[in-house]
Amino acid sequence: MGLWMSIGRPSINDRFKISLLPFSALILGIFILMLFVYFTNSIQILQREGIGLYTTNQWVASEDPEREYYGVFAALYGSVYTSVLAVLISLPLSICFAVFVIDYAPARLKEWLIIATDIMAGLPTIIYGIWGAFILVPFMKEYVMYPLYRHLSFIPLFSFEPLSGYSYLSAGILLGIMVTPFASSIIREAYRMIPFSYREAVFSLGATRYEATKILMGYIKPAIIAGVILAFGRAIGETVAVSLVVGNTFNIHPSLFAPGYTISSLIANQFGNAFIYKYMVSALFAAGLSLFLIGLAVNLMGIYILRRGRHA
Amino acid sequence: MNRKLLLVGLLLVIILLSGCTQPESLQSSGSATQPKETKSSTKETILIGSGATFPQPQIEKWIDEYSKTNPNIKIEYIGKGSGGGQNDFKQNLVDFACSDPPLKESLWNELKKDGQPLQFPIIVGAVVVAYNIPGVENLKLDGSTLADIFLGDIEYWDDSRIKELNPDAKLPHEKIIVVHRSDSSGTTDIFTTYLSLVGDEWREKIGSGKTVEWVVDRLGRGVGGKGNPGVVVAIKNNPHTIGYTELAYAYKENLKMVAIQNKAGNYVTASPETIKNAVSKISVNIPPPYEGYKENMATLLNADGEKSYPIVAFSHMVIWQKYDDKSREEEIKKFVKWILTEGQKDSSLVSGYVGLPEDVSNKILEETGLWG
Question: If you average pLDDT over residues B106-132, what whole number do you get?
């Protein structure tokens, strides 16, 4: 209201406000338009297969449209599996890193450490992918997966013979490394911003450094959750690097060592020739839509956790 | 001050919006009216093509060589997959498209509403079966054994059926890991068509296509690699793997190739010689360019002849017979003619690609009416 009433004689402040309006509208507009495009393109396949698209594991591409059938459950499963692994790996890494950089690192080293993580965050993902395929996968296979498989294969997590090394675990670790800079920079900045008086207060109570850090971590919980959400979002959306290490097979298995697929790498793999088939483009859009929904769900969960924390 | 701010803001919005409209120069389509640039005094023509990634290195070399003698022409090729190229061509976004598999009849008929399309092979490729078993050279396999390996029926390298064909090789008792393409690809189409020809069980259970269902994946012995590079990396890095890839990639990475039994019963590996032998035998099955959709991949595989390599395939180019812009038509036909004559000489070929035998390229030139 205030905005429109003051248009007659806008002050400098209001004109500035108005000049910002197109930009915020543009961003919202782009987002809504994208969602709209994904919805309209998915309708075709959803009408044909219904929810079966997300609950079955079958990928039958045929030039005869009658025989075409797409079920992306394996990729959906793989996406969530690898992203959760990535978050589990990156969270402790990034918290420890943030605490070390802010509390312990000498001033000079601190700067270099921050620069290093910023570079890590900006590296093209294909670089991680190639490193993953040539170094990480053979290493993991030889020194981690096979020993665990030989001795502990009665545990379902280790029950799959890691023949090639391409697996959920390889993808999860690679993703964990890739998203750590993002999560850690959010946590680091929040940790740095904690008012000094709070720290003083905690130490004056006689807390050890460990206890103080633990208490202060509770104080920046929203930032940690934001870091987790960002890390999860980046992990689930990663395409090139993952498709180099995950194995790209339509497979559903509880074991960490089994090869699988993710939605993003599925889209990257199949989009080039999807136009040849009648329904595949639509199926890939619908698969992309599911990432939207997962992202939405994770964000809502984050908001919920924060709210609950506030009320408690 | 505040006005300036507003002005800057508005300018930015205008710039952003102008980015949304398609600049005319991008629509270098055959049938759409051409922008003025072709008639401008510089006379530089830009031809744009897109499509299969397999012939890309070769096409880039051709473009490079061709531009040396024709400086007023600029050709760009975007490798995005055969399907993408076909789609671009249909939507008139490009002047020519390249596709590994021949166009389908339904697409062909749709295209015919806009004009007569011409499709013809420009280069020959071969799909090779590469393997990685330390200490085993010159592995020999026949068609049905190959099909059963890719089906997952043969589990270990020292299976009696493999041993029988390779009595002298020291085959390890290790599980076979099958590497295949994870993206949909013409290479998979060619290879699975071949397996369908030689393996009864494969034909009934799996069939052929750009992506097929890999049963070995469910057994945990399958790995998907994205693109030829992805497959090659997986084979190189993992002992006891077997997979299929384009000849050029196998050459580049020095992979060991399986000698496959051909129709005549001989074991042959892919080489320019064995590939050309096969192409000469099957050239009668290449349909005339104005009926390109009639090409049947199955008739090009498993060729007769003592020294014919059984899995050869063409990469095709698709152009229009007539373009609205005559000078553009002229340039395209000049380029195509150059490809089919000068371009097929050894000095213009990239290693791993095989030129068309001369009788085949002459036949195409005759039929497209590009001769003379």
Answer: 92
Q: Which residue of A has its CA nearest to B14?
A: A22
- Between the two ends of chain B, the Cα-to-Cα distance in Å is 69
- Domains of chain A, residue spans: 88-279
Torsional sign, CA B123, B129, B133, B136: negative
Q: Is A137 on the interface with B (CB under 8 A)?
A: yes
Cβ-proximal residues to A158 (8 Å cutoff; 6+ apart), any chain: A148, A149, A152, A255, A256, A257
Distance from CA of A55 to the nearest CA of B (A): 17
Please name every residue paired with B260 in a beta bridge, in sequence order, or none if there are none: B141, B268
Q: Which residues pair with A94 in a beta bridge?
A: none
Q: What is the rounded CA–CA span in Å between residue B240 and residue B172?
A: 9
Tally of CB atoms within 10 A around A304: 10
**CATH (residue range A88-279):** 1.10.3720.10
ipTM of the complex: 0.71
Cβ A246 vs Cβ A170: under 8 Å:
yes
Cα gap A218→A207, rounded to integer Å: 15
Burial (CB count within 10 angstroms: exposed 0-12, middle 13-18, buried 19+), residue A115: exposed
Q: How far is CA B226 from the centre of its chain?
A: 15
| Contact: A273, B183; criterion CB under 8 Å | yes
Question: What does the pLDDT read at residue A269?
Answer: 86
pTM above 0.80, yes or no: no
